[in-house]
Fold:
Amino acid sequence: MLKIAVMISGGGTDLQSIIDACQAGKINGTIELVISNRQKAYGLQRAQKAGIETAVVKKNDTLIVSMLKERNIDLVVLAGYLAILTDELIDAYPNQIINIHPSLIPSFCGAGMYGMHVHEAVLNRGVKVSGATVHFVSSEIDGGPIIKQVACDISDLDKPEDIQARVLEIEHRILPEVVGLYCDGRIKVENGRAKVI
Ligand SMILES: Nc1nc2c(c(=O)[nH]1)N[C@@H](CN(C=O)c1ccc(C(=O)N[C@@H](CCC(=O)O)C(=O)O)cc1)CN2
Ligand SMILES: NCC(=O)N[C@@H]1O[C@H](COP(=O)([O-])[O-])[C@@H](O)[C@H]1O
Structure:
């Protein structure tokens, strides 16, 4: 069983999808720690309800690395974590940090593209499909190897919150799926590209 840490900043529905999958025996791993950079993140309550250790750490990747190493964490999941990771944390966990992003990378991603900002940009551009991406985290924001993407038709939607809701349904499926694949050793990175084996 791999040891997992999840980093959040908000409501934690993506975190909840992993908690639920672990409790259902769908992931060969256990969530050992949930870290938030925001004290009031509701996701902290979700973790505490599930009996998972929580911590609030703001702008201190040195401390985060020490907490992860102390707990022998194997996989770090960014589940709505809205801060940019420093190279200190990324280098400590090469291809061991994954992120969920609410668009089809490389579209609508990078600095400033998070949460509802993504769906507002998608609506304003008038694209007819959106979706979600799970990728490894690198120094380039949202530029790491893509592990899985699923698209959805949004041509019938005209509100960003409705696009968000449809994309979240995808997120809540593919994030636990990818975490499970990682825990089973079925994700490899070759020549900068991730593949499921
Ligand atoms: N080094 C990396 N750090 C992070 C990555 C990454 O790929 N490499 N992924 C992001 C997640 N993310 C999108 O998926 C993302 C998060 C936050 C931002 C952003 O611009 N944040 C603002 C502050 C937002 C706030 O605190 O309200 C900022 O830093 O100015 C962009 C993309 C996680 N980190
Ligand atoms: N760029 C990162 C980003 O925008 N992440 C997004 O934050 C939301 C967190 O929701 P949650 O708090 O309900 O899990 C999710 O939609 C996730 O894709």
About this structure: The first strand starts at residue 2 and ends at 8. Helices lie at 13-23, 42-49, 61-70, 87-92, 116-125, 160-183. The domain at 2-196 is CATH 3.40.50.170 (Rossmann fold).
